[in-house]
Write a structure and sequence with these properties.
With 310 residues, the protein is mainly alpha-helical. Helices cover 45% and strands 8% of the residues. The protein has twelve helices and five strands. The strands form two sheets. A three-stranded parallel beta sheet has the order 1-2-3. The chain is globular. The relative contact order is 0.13. The structure holds adenosine-5'-triphosphate and magnesium ion. It comes from Lojkania enalia. It is found in: Mitochondrion matrix. InterPro entries: aa-tRNA-synth_I_CS, aa-tRNA-synth_Ic, Rossmann-like_a/b/a_fold, Trp-tRNA-ligase, Trp-tRNA_synthetase.
Length: 310
């Protein structure tokens, strides 16, 4: 039988990237998997403290994340929805896994490098915030805790966005390596740890509205960079209106040359994939449209869907 596990950090209200890349997929799986499939969705509060948090704020965010998961359609009657910190075995398995996890492999993970650049993560005492001295052990070993989250439930499938692909591959290899060391003879039968597979949503990487070469993130300090699932029509319009595009005339799809415009096209396409066969096709339909008109169309589509679906 399939076991599905995924997590989200209580670091703010979910945005369109979380929704299209993860939460909507979780709800679809919940509603479409057959009865025998087990589903686990965790609010991963232990991951949230890998960067500095305010205790009151974090408590609030935990509750808001639980409410958000219900809002997108997850149901405690079908899925196990829980706070990571209420199951101490996540931390216990993490320690065991840490004893076989490679520092070299961890140092190649790109996410901790991007989190190091966040303002509340730099120490005024450290002249080189990206240096080893400022790097916190928890932020560095985060993927080991994530592997423990997944492996604990003998998870077979993990629905996540593209930014987590590297961590998932790490979890797989950690499981395979652990089995090799501690159960080398259990070939094929019942593995000690189950190497999980990734399920990636078609909308695997929604980009920031203000810096479309970066992914949309809860922890981005610029609030205009993301649309929250709770934003009202006016706020959505304002944020899309200010989205960074370019000075090329008309609409065309080219993620390299026109990241801002392509992100907007992707938003419409992924909100409702029945509108066209691909983002490229959709862009052709919009040929000759002004960027202003494109933005209006994006705001309208986004508004309609998040208010129908959440
Ligand atoms: P933070 O900035 O605190 O890391 P986040 O926005 O990256 O927040 P997470 O809680 O780390 O969100 O991730 C939850 C899920 O959302 C993961 O499956 C992740 O892959 C997915 N996700 C996050 N951002 C995006 C994005 N921009 N596009 C698609 N999927 C995303
Ligand atoms: Mg993240």
């Amino acid at each position: 039988p399939r076991v599905i596990f995924s997590g989200i950090q209580p670091t703010g209200i979910p945005h369109l990237g979380n929704y299209l890349g993860a939460l909507r997929l979780w709800a679809t799986l919940q509603n479409e998997e057959d009865e025998q499939t087990e589903l686990f969705f965790s609010i991963v509060d232990l991951h949230a403290i890998t960067i500095k948090q305010n205790a009151k704020q974090l408590q609030q965010w935990r509750k808001e994340m639980l409410a958000s998961l219900y809002a997108v359609g997850l149901s405690p009657e079908r899925s196990t929805i829980f706070y990571q910190s209420s199951v101490p075995q996540h931390s216990e398995l993490m320690w065991i896994l840490s004893c076989t996890a490679s520092m070299g492999y961890l140092s190649r993970m790109t996410q901790w490098k991007s989190k190091l650049a966040l303002p509340n993560n730099t120490s005024p005492l450290d002249p080189s915030p990206t240096g080893k001295a400022a790097l916190k052990l928890g932020l560095f070993s985060y993927p080991v805790l994530q592997a423990a989250d997944i492996l604990l439930y003998r998870t077979t499938h993990v629905p996540v966005g593209e930014d987590q692909a590297q961590h998932l591959e790490f979890a797989r290899e950690l499981a395979i390596g652990f089995n090799h060391v501690y159960a080398p003879n259990s070939k094929g039968n019942v593995p000690l740890l189950v190497p999980p597979q990734i399920i990636m949503s078609p909308a695997k990487r929604v980009m920031s509205l203000t810096n479309p070469t970066k992914k949309m993130s809860k922890s981005d300090t610029d609030e205009k960079s993301r649309i929250l699932i709770t934003d009202n029509e006016n706020v959505i319009k304002k944020k899309i209106n200010r989205a960074l595009t370019d000075s090329i005339e008309g609409v065309s799809y080219d993620r390299e040359a026109r990241p801002g415009v392509s992100n907007l096209i992707n938003l419409i396409y992924h909100m409702d994939e029945s509108v066209a066969s691909s983002p490229e096709e959709l862009a052709k339909e919009f040929d000759g449209m002004s960027l202003k008109a494109l933005k209006e169309k994006v705001a309208e589509t986004v508004e309609m869907h998040i208010h129908d679906e959440t």
